[in-house]
Amino acid sequence: MRHTISILVENKFGVLARVTGLFSGRGFNIDSLNVAPTHVAALSRITAVLMGDEAALNLAIKQLRKLVNVVEVTDFKDGQAVQRELVLVKVKASAKSRSEVMQICEIFRTKIVNVDHKDVIVELVGDCAKVSAFLNLLEPFGIIEIARTGTLALKRA
Amino acid sequence: MRHTISILVENKFGVLARVTGLFSGRGFNIDSLNVAPTHVAALSRITAVLMGDEAALNLAIKQLRKLVNVVEVTDFKDGQAVQRELVLVKVKASAKSRSEVMQICEIFRTKIVNVDHKDVIVELVGDCAKVSAFLNLLEPFGIIEIARTGTLALKRA
């Protein structure tokens, strides 16, 4: 099963290493993870997408809550949270193919953030399904490089 | 000094824990970090923003390159890379203040992705300076929660 987990932590030395260590120690595969400061100077938020068995995950969350410097752990159920991802894609785009690439970008409401003779860098924000659909359409042109933030989530209510 | 580093790694068990462990073991403060799969099934990309001394960082990068499952490490100099961040902000917005919040959102070309009676969730993409300016303007309304992906970077040339 795929789980999106939000972990509020104190900005203390080594806390990220402890959190990722706990997951790897319990055999969890981290699909994606991101961490950055919040508006409260002393706190950072980690959003992680994990693959694994439900019971084992619940146990891991219990252990997470006991870790030093972990303030809050939320396991988002479907639809509870707004989920978005940011992707930067460098795709081949010669003078010939550029207009076709730009057309796809326009349909997906993406933004071209860099243009070179042979390629463009596109910025896309969306949920999993949108990102997959977009990358599938770009594949035939030749994807050179890609960077993804992984899922970012915030509770609706 | 602030450094943005891109690390291409094999999707092997525990590699993220090893990378974060190396940084914390050497006393580096990770300001932000994100990791997600790339278009090549076997590879993930980590983008990390680190604060620390130049010489110590160069040493850490050398050690990173020697880690099992690390394929490539790039230390981006200023302007070499497109750098963007995705932010979700839940901000107080009553019937009274909502139009003012929406005005600020429009100026920053952000997107309102959720509306409730007392708050809205806003999605913003930008560089460090844009994100800071936006959050400063929202502060007086009352920021309830925030989630940031941290800097994502892709080489221009």
Give a description of the structure:
Two copies of one chain form a homodimer. Chain A has helices at residues 15-25, 54-66, 98-107, 128-138; strands at 2-10, 29-37, 43-51, 70-76, 81-92, 111-115, 119-126, 143-148, 152-155. The model of chain A has no long low-confidence stretch (mean pLDDT 94). The first copy, chain A, is of the alpha+beta class. Chain A folds into two domains: 2-76, Alpha-Beta Plaits, CATH 3.30.70; 82-155, 2-Layer Sandwich (Alpha-Beta Plaits). In chain A, strands 5, 6, 7, 8 and 9 form a five-stranded antiparallel beta sheet that branches. In chain A, 40% of the residues are buried.
Query: How many distinct domains of chain A?
Result: 2
Q: Which whole number gives the mean pLDDT of chain A?
A: 94
User: How many β-strand stretches of chain A?
Assistant: 9
CATH architecture title of the largest domain in chain A: 2-Layer Sandwich
Quaternary organisation of the protein chains: homodimer
| Residue share in β-strands of chain A | 35-45%
Order of SSEs of chain A = EHEEHEEHEEHEE
CATH fold group of the largest domain in chain A: Alpha-Beta Plaits
What's the helical proportion of residues of chain A? 25-40%
CATH superfamily of the largest domain in chain A: ACT domain
Major sheet summary line of chain A: 5 strands, antiparallel
Count the helices of chain A. How many?
Answer: 4
What is the distance, rounded to the nearest whole angstrom, between the alpha carbons of the first and last residues of chain A? Answer: 24 Å
The CATH class assignment of the largest domain in chain A is Alpha Beta
* Radius of gyration of chain A from CA coordinates: 18 Å
Detail the poorly predicted runs of chain A.
none
Estimate the global geometry of chain A from the Cα principal axes.
elongated
